[in-house]
Amino acid sequence: MASAEHILRVRRLYKLIFRVHRGLPAELRVLGDNYARDEFKRHKTCNMAEANVFLNEWTDYAINIAKQMKPLHQAKKKTVGKDLDPRMLDYMTDEQIVQLYELHKAAHNETTDNESLQNNNTKT
Description:
By secondary structure, this protein is mainly α. It folds into two domains: 1-80, no CATH class; 83-124. It has helices spanning 4-21, 26-42, 48-68, 71-76, 94-123.
């Protein structure tokens, strides 16, 4: 059974991720919220070693997104996110690689759908 301190840490991180996502563009916010929610549900019953890795990675994610939401960064870069180091694929399971690919497809479809909507709106 997880300690009260561990549960509190997970809840704080979970809430922090959703607060940080508020600064994202609407389509990325929905995608990010859904992905985070699903990942936290999937790891609800993982062992402590996996939980520590999971929490460290999501903490790094939250810190990186928070930095990118700062106005100065937005003014200079106008981008959100960073490229995945290809070496990370060596550490992923087949299931994780498929999940990453599905996320990539969903993100690409969101971008394509939004671009076509904008093009249609400018034509009318």
